[in-house]
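Because discrete structure vocabularies remain unfamiliar, we turn briefly to a single example record, giving the amino acid sequence and backbone structure tokens:
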Amino acid sequence: MPAHIEDYALLGNCRSAALISRDGSLDWLCLPRFDAPAVFAALLGNEENGRWRLAPSDPVEHSSRSYLDDTLVLETLWVTASGRARVLDFMPLDDVNSVVRIVEGLSGETCFEMDLVMRFDYGRSVPWVEKLDPLTLSAVAGPDRLILCSSVPSHARDHHTVARFRVGVGERHVFSLRHQPSHLPVQPDCDIDQALAHTIDHWQAFAARCPDVGPYTDLVRRSLLTLKAMTYAPTGGIVAAVTTSLPERVGGERNWDYRFCWLRDATMTLLAFMNLGYFDEAQAWREWLLRSVAGNPEQMQIMYGLAGERDLQEYTLPWLAGYEHSQPVRVGNAASQQRQLDIYGELADAMTQAIKGGLPRLPRSAAIARLILPYVESIWREPDEGLWEVRGGRQHFVHSKVMAWVAFDRAAGLADTTEEDRERGRHYRQVADEIHREVCAQGLDASGAFFVQAYGSSELDASLLQIALTGFLPAQDPRFLRTLEQIEQRLLKNGLLLRYDSDSCSDGLTPGEGTFLVCSFWLADVYVLLGRQQQAQALYEMLTGLCNDLGLLAEQYDPAGQRMLGNYPQAFSHIGIINTALNLHRAQCPARDRASSG
């Protein structure tokens, strides 16, 4: 049985990531990329689907864990009756396909056990294992090879690789597991001490660039490190999460693959990086964005692979039982082929915020706008699946229409270079005004008092908070204030926001999910816009109080079960931590600046 989601620690090397539970079991690892088939998939099944446990074999009296200061090097302290020891776990940044685990004795003598279960192709393929020398073994299955180098001998037991050893004061044992293509000669192991020093230096240098954000600095810095770890360094793309199929409801079917890059994350990610002075990261993300969307605007997708791949075909893995029996386990994401009108607004807003934030104007940005906006003009009146990627049929979602307005509003503001541009800008403004009029006429409830999820609906949706955050209407507009009041009354659950009421909304799936954390960050941002600073701060502190002991957040939270739900760690949630902290701390908050773009 896998651990609770919040019990996992994140390791990363800006190409892939691993999750390690409190009991020392590495239950999730995809190599050589975030979206590669997992070589350890116990997270979505059991230990026979692959895991690597390294922990004391004697009863543990106490354990604790933390990251070494401002790094992704995990330190776990173990105390048994006979001794104290620590384990350092990390993914080297100078050896892009490996995980290193170092055991050091601190006092007395501690007996440890290693249990390595290597399974390729998401826990399905048992590899051929051979010893290359007494301390090195190779495991091969098809195109993949794993090589274990250790300072203690190991042996086979029921398709597991196991070892027992003792570590005394000042003693040290090292285990390194690296991946390489199986057809290549076995590569030598890296210099472990050099790799550790380089990895620590890299993370600390990155974290040191984080400016002061008052009482929120530590939270913001840890979220920045998490986002950096979720960045695919070769391309600049940022995955939505490092996992697939962690459920939005335990035992349910709302299980999706988030190991891809969503256009929707663009604006908030750029704001997070730029407002903290991380311009290289912002520029890399913008470059990924522009490369990925290049081509026929009719073929523009809501998400892409790490390098901009478009084929994200969805299929299921029936041999995996699922996290706590939540099925199906999915790979790929069929939502990549949905129509979601909001992505065009996100793209235009991202380009606008990039320029306002100090990134240079790019001719490609203007060229893309000239290609995409005529297409958006031809389709904005049509229904879509919306930002929540519903599978119950298209609707005229109000948020989608608002973001279509954003696309033309932002483009109109940027079209000021030549007379031809200005003429084009005037046309964009006319289209934006037309969309605005329609939304204000058709997007309200039957009484005309407040906005609803979709035309003709009576349902509420947390995405309606974007009406104020994008500047579609001022936050003080009576229609928005009434919408906010309805959202608070109908979607707040134990102080946290649901996306919408899945019991009454038809989204094509079995009802039931947790509160969606980024929506509550949006709510805090709206409170800031309204000058309700104390409410905003109280909500922010509630949200950040849900972080685990390592400062990590998943996509959702179950207030009743008091546990995290959904894929983990979630970029959207950590972007919320950063941007809401800036909104609370800075007089000219990013939310107010973004809303003034409208």
In short: The longest strand covers residues 98-117. The two ends are 49 Å apart (CA to CA).
